[in-house]
């Protein structure tokens, strides 16, 4: 007998949260209903067909796929799983038990075993739970009788009479195995899912699953360590029995732990109530402060209103006195009736002054008080921002740090961050950024929520500096803000191109990668043979390569990396009308004095060499950046040599006929000069000896995920 009570948790499918129905054993040893496995795989297919749209994540009413599962679906789709592929591919399945992506192999669901033992236990539980519900005979005429036994060979239930009829004495059916009434019929022999006609008779200790002899001979378990089924049965049963005995012997310890956990539950309840009270008190204090401020503001407005009303009311009464037979005018009319000159003069003098003032006020009418209350507008913008950031601060949540080396500012901004402890303790991150502007005193942060540790931003202005900061959230708890990092965007829109493998490309000396984003000079036998023919000096021509796209107008920027081991690299631009001259220039050599020296070192040969060049280039090599020798450049050669940046950029402004060379990591201009933009301009590169150039890859929405996969 099996103790059924208390084992419900072990009999529930983690996908549908119902009792198992035909459970399958996954390679991770978790069990999932056969129907649930199919529905999750169908959800994968729907998600792949719909591009991972949210409309497909509720494809089945039986199961609900969580957000984390949908993230894993998207990740599997990105990994390259395709339908109708001619080459067999592995099937990935997100196990709802361990939340990991499990490889089901090429056979997928067909390569999984049914867990008949678990089915039997579930059936016993069902029978114990529905003891009052009888299993009826499958062969009785209506009304059917209650069954008394079930035949495991026929997979049917019978009453006594029907069993005798269908299993007569002396026949083969009389030898069938029968048990008590059940709805769980399991095969007598467990067959191999990969070789359906073979029974399993061995156990693979590596994959921890039963296999047949064909699996061992030439299948996927050929090189695995296997043992006989009886040995595996005996070994596993002994281990399981010992473990169960150990747990039973520790029953008192388990009960003590349960008691401790019960106390922790109560303590958690008490502490949560205390935390709620403290939070309520904090907000009550804010309410009190706001109420005080509100009352003070309303009192000030009320006082100002009363004063203004008094002034306006007095002005109304004053002007009412100017009406005929009213107030001052009526009094003046009565004074005019006085006939005694001395008495009239005595009264009229003061009255005349009042009449004159009334006349002047009538000519320049002005209300005695303002009707607007603009001075009493309460500015709460800053307070709203502060209250918006109001949350629980915890020292346990690590402060993220923006990684400036991994962050990039190119066609888009890629901002990456990490936690000092290398642990993802936060559930979600909030990235804030704002443009640095000296004119604007107020700072308005733009906010975006991120589930990972990187974010691609595409709404930044060109040639601008931005400040970035990030903080982590775990529920209602947030970390403090990270240190602000300032990054600068490129000075112009990013220009995209590839290396041209046709125009002047020398495949004997240069080697392109398949994507045409990297070029490397090969100092092989052709270079040695060329040098062997030279008896005086060592003059070797540069190997040029240009971009496959030109620029006719506007301002553009592109970036690239030069390998640190590179001996000599020249970078710049060339107009279309001088490309032919570039690839056939006999003076373009490693030494400016290619022709015979004039006999003095005045530098006139250098001047001739620079003026004769068909393109504008700067020299790089040996981890150095060489500023060209121009009248505006420093005379000291050492001051014209700079460390080679990890990433270089070129900004071409066709409208101003100028080209600039930048440290693309800091977006700082290292050198700028005039350039002839008479034709279509092409990016130009020259390499000699061991050297390599890699074009900067454009930032896309999936850039970080792509490099993480690599």
UniProtKB/TrEMBL annotation:
Cell location: Cytoplasm, Cytoskeleton
Any one cellular-component term (Gene Ontology): microtubule
CDD domains: Bbox2_TRIM36_C-I (cd19778), FN3 (cd00063), RING-HC_TRIM36_C-I (cd16756), SPRY_PRY_TRIM36 (cd12894)
Residues covered by the B30.2/SPRY domain: 477-704
Matching InterPro entries: B30.2/SPRY, B30.2/SPRY_sf, Bbox_C, ConA-like_dom_sf, COS_domain, E3_ligase_FN3/SPRY, FN3_dom, FN3_sf
GO molecular function: ligase activity; ubiquitin-protein transferase activity; zinc ion binding
Pfam family, one: COS
Any one Gene Ontology BP term: spindle organization
Organism superkingdom: Eukaryota
Signal peptide: none
Primary location class: cytoplasm
Coiled-coil features, chain-numbered ranges: 258-285
Domain COS: 336-393
Domain Fibronectin type-III as annotated: residue spans: 399-492
Swiss-Prot/TrEMBL keywords: Coiled coil, Cytoplasm, Cytoskeleton, Ligase, Metal-binding, Microtubule, Repeat, Transferase, Ubl conjugation pathway, Zinc, Zinc-finger
PANTHER family: E3 UBIQUITIN-PROTEIN LIGASE TRIM36, E3 UBIQUITIN-PROTEIN LIGASE TRIM36-RELATED
Family statement: Belongs to the TRIM/RBCC family.
Name of the protein this chain belongs to: TRI36 ligase
């Amino acid at each position: 007998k099996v103790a059924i009570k208390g084992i419900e948790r072990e009999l529930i499918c983690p996908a549908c949260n119902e009792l198992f129905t035909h459970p399958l054993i996954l390679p991770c040893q978790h069990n999932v209903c056969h129907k649930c496995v199919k529905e999750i795989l169908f959800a994968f297919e729907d998600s792949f067909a719909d591009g991972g749209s949210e409309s497909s994540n509720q494809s089945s009413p039986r199961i609900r796929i969580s957000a984390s599962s949908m993230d894993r679906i998207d990740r599997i789709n990105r990994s390259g799983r395709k339908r109708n592929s001619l080459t067999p591919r592995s099937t990935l399945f997100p196990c709802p038990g361990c939340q990991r992506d499990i490889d089901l192999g090429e056979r997928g669901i067909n390569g999984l075993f049914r867990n008949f033992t678990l089915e039997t236990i579930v059936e016993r539980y069902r029978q114990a739970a529905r003891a009052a519900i009888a299993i009826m005979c499958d062969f009785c005429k209506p009304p059917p009788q209650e069954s008394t036994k079930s035949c495991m060979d026929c997979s049917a239930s019978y009453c006594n009479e029907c069993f005798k009829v269908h299993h007569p004495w002396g026949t083969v059916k009389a030898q069938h195995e029968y048990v008590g009434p059940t709805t769980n019929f399991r095969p007598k022999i467990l067959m191999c899912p990969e070789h359906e006609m073979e029974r399993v008779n061995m156990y693979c200790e590596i994959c921890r699953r039963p296999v047949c002899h064909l699996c061992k001979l030439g299948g996927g378990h050929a090189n695995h360590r296997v043992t006989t089924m009886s040995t595996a049965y005996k070994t596993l049963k002994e281990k399981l029995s010992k473990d169960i005995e150990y747990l039973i012997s520790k029953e008192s310890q388990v009960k003590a732990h349960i008691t401790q956990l019960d106390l922790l539950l109560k303590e958690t309840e008490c502490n949560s109530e205390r935390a709620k009270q403290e939070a309520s008190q904090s907000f009550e204090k804010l309410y009190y402060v706001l109420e005080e401020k509100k009352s003070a503001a309303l009192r000030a407005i009320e006082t100002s209103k009363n004063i203004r009303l008094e002034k306006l009311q007095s002005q109304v009464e004053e002007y009412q006195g100017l009406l005929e037979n009213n107030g001052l005018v009526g009094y003046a009319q009565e004074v005019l009736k006085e006939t005694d000159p001395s008495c009239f003069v005595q009264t009229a003098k003061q009255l005349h002054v009042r009449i004159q003032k009334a006349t002047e006020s009538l000519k320049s009418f002005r209300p005695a008080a303002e009707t607007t209350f603009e001075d009493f507008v309460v500015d709460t913008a800053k307070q709203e921002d502060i209250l918006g950031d109001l949350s629980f601060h915890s020292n346990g949540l690590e402060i993220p740090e923006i990684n400036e080396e991994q962050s990039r500012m190119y066609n888009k901004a890629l901002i990456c961050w990490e936690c000092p402890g290398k642990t993802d303790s936060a559930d979600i991150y909030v990235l804030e950024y704002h443009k640095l502007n000296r004119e604007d005193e107020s700072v308005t942060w733009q906010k975006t929520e991120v589930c990972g540790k990187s974010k691609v931003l595409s709404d930044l202005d060109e040639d601008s500096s931005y400040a970035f900061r990030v903080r982590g959230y775990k529920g209602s708890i947030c970390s403090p803000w990270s240190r602000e990092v300032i990054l600068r965007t490129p000075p112009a829109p990013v220009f995209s191109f590839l290396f041209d493998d046709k125009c002047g490309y020398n495949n004997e000396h240069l080697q392109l990668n398949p994507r045409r984003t990297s070029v490397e000079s090969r100092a092989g036998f052709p270079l040695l043979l060329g040098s062997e023919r030279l008896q005086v000096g060592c003059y070797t021509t540069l190997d040029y390569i240009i971009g496959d796209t030109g620029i006719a107008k506007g301002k553009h920027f592109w970036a690239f990396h030069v390998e640190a081991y590179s001996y000599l690299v020249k970078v710049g631009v060339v107009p279309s009308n001088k490309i032919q001259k570039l690839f056939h220039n006999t003076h373009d050599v490693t030494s400016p004095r290619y022709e015979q020296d004039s006999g003095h070192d005045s530098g006139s040969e250098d001047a001739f060499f620079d003026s004769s060049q068909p393109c504008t280039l700067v020299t790089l090599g040996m981890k150095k950046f060489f500023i060209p020798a121009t009248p505006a450049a420093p005379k000291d050669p050492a001051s014209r040599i700079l460390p080679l940046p990890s990433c270089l950029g070129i900004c071409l402004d066709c409208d101003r006929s100028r080209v600039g060379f930048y440290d693309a990591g800091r977006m700082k201009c290292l050198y700028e000069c005039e350039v002839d933009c008479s034709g279509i301009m092409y990016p130009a590169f020259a390499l000699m000896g061991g050297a390599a150039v890699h074009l900067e890859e454009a930032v896309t929405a999936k850039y970080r995920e792509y490099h993480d996969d690599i």
